[in-house]
Amino acid sequence: MVSFSNILEPFDYVVIGSGSAGAVIANRLSASGEFRVLLLEAGGRDKDPWIHIPAGFSKTFSNAKINWGDLSEPEPELHNRNLFYPYGKVLGGSSSVNGMVYIRGQRQDYDDWRELGNEGWGYRDVLPYFKKAENQHRGADEFHGIGGPIDVHDQFERNELCDAFFAAAREVGISTNEDFNGSHSEGAGYYQLTTNGWRRSSTAVGYLRPARRRVNLTILVNAQATRLLLQDRQVVGVEFIKDGQRFRVNARREVILSAGAFNSPHLLQLSGIGPAERLRASGISVLHDLSGVGESVQDHFMPIVVYECTKPLSINDAVRSKWGQLRILSNYLLRRTGLMTIGAAYAGGFFRAMSSAQRADVQCFFMLYSSDDYINPSEYSGFSVGIFQSRPTSRGWVRTTSPDPEKRPEIRLNYLSTENDRDHLTAGLKLTRRIMEAPSMRPYVRRREKPATTVVADCDLLDWARQFGNASYHATGSCRMGSDSTAVVDSRLRVRGLSGLRVADASVMPTLVSGNTNAPTIMIGEKAADLILADTR
User: Fold this and answer.
1) Is 107 inside any structural domain?
2) Same-domain pairing of 431 and 514
3) C-alpha span between 35 and 16 (Å, rounded)
4) Among 453, 473, 493, where does a domain finish?
5) Is there a catalytic annotation at residue 137?
6) What is the DSSP secondary structure assignment for residue 95, as one 8-state letter?
7) Which domain, by its residues, includes 181?
């Protein structure tokens, strides 16, 4: 029973989740001072110093204080392995813990969204929102903006291994690309990062810090939403838990759900919004039958090929000695340069792996280290190449199995469940092998460490990937936008069949973009804020 003292004064808007989209929306809705906005974040403040040091992403990977760290259900096509899935539980959400690679995806991705019936989501429609969010250190042009809340910066210097990789790519017919977010994405090159050159640029830093002193914006941390409050077909508020107490707050205008690809459908289902038969089986009263909630989950599946290097050029070498660690630290503290300024991948690219591909169908990450556990560098000089299919056709799900909000949902990605995905991944691995065997890379490769050089045949490559590949942490689609009967939100991000509720985060993507998802999710936040404000007029 909720006591009167635990009912908050109403707000105009309640935003659930402060991640790559939610922080954007809270900032933009509160900017005029006209509306009272409440932002609920299940995690804490972004105080951990490793959050703000770019290379610190490896320290946040499994930190339960700032990371949800879910486990998938056994994946049938991956030898029934349970995959660890980290994503941010802190102000800024995953923008505070991710690898910081700034990629928007291919322009055709967004034109595909429009062609699926999502008016206003074509490339030319969304480009202004990418530019609005961006403070591009190279300057403004047709494709880039300056003065936005998110800093986008080049890597601190060129690298010998990366340059050899680009030369090898050219030798197999892949051009060099200086800007993956410009006129085209195809080719090999250096990645840009969401940093100012030496510190992470998260949505907590870029959007919330400037806004937090506004008297009309209230930010509550360690406040986990447990249920949406419905009256008839209208969402009127949110129930949440903070400091062990249960609270209720009403929204005069709307609730905006921005809790991410796993938590947004989870909260909808906890609230009785979702597939009716499944909700009943889980002991949840059905308030709104919406079959698509939690379905259509997509992610990139990435095996990582590891090489031993002939020269001491890897991060493994740099961190092996105390002297090397001290040099890295002094470069960062005194010069704001060096290995502590880098993200998850230094370079990579977008390639055509299948001969039938009309556009790039795989993405590559070239990493200056090797690791047996994704965190700690190997004992030898090593570097790695990750590869994944850009647009997988496998679909997974997020399913709430209990009315208890403390019980995490069941998550299955169903990686490699289609022949299309298996064929593309195999082709991508074979293309990686061709690049690494090209003349420009040969002087740097002592041997292929993983998979072993005896793994050659297509079926063996695929089986190795099934045993050792992992998530890319780009989950999307669980509250899919569309005009068909299984879509969860319409093109204005309103939950179908209800009023007073929108979803705005990676979960609404109709199809997974051909690359990293942080920048597209920030774009969704910017566009969502405009849609919401337009509907107030």
Assistant:
1) no
2) no
3) 16
4) 473
5) no
6) G
7) 156-190+301-389+419-473
Question: Is residue 437 domain-resident?
Answer: yes
Q: How many other C-beta atoms can be found within 10 angstroms of the C-beta atom of residue 438? A: 18
The three-point CA angle 463-464-466 to 5° equals: 60
Identify the burial level of 283 via C-beta atoms within 10 angstroms of its C-beta, where 0-12 means exposed, 13-18 middle and 19 or more buried.
exposed
Q: What is the pLDDT of residues 435-487, one digit of tens each?
A: 999 999 999 999 999 999 999 999 999 999 999 999 999 999 999 999 999 99
Angle (CA) 509-360-488 rounded to 5° is 10
Query: How many residues does the structure list for the chain?
Result: 537
Residues of the chain with pLDDT under 50: 1-4
The reply to whether 119 falls in a domain is no
Shared domain for 425 and 522, answered yes or no, is no
Distances (CA, A) of 174 to 318, 348, 368, 441: 30, 11, 20, 14
| Cα–Cα nearest to 473, from 21, 110, 94 | 94
pLDDT given at position 3: 45
Q: Which residue type occupies 42?
A: A
CB atoms within 10 A of CB 405: 18
Look up tokens 């093109």; give the residue. 491
3-state secondary structure 175-201: CECCCCCCCCCCEEEECCECECCCCEC
Q: What is the pLDDT of residues 395-450, one digit of tens each?
A: 999 999 999 999 999 999 999 999 999 999 999 999 999 999 999 999 999 999 99
* First-residue to last-residue Cα distance in the chain: 38
Q: Are 340 and 331 in contact (CB under 8 A)?
A: yes
- Find where tokens 């986990």 sit: 224
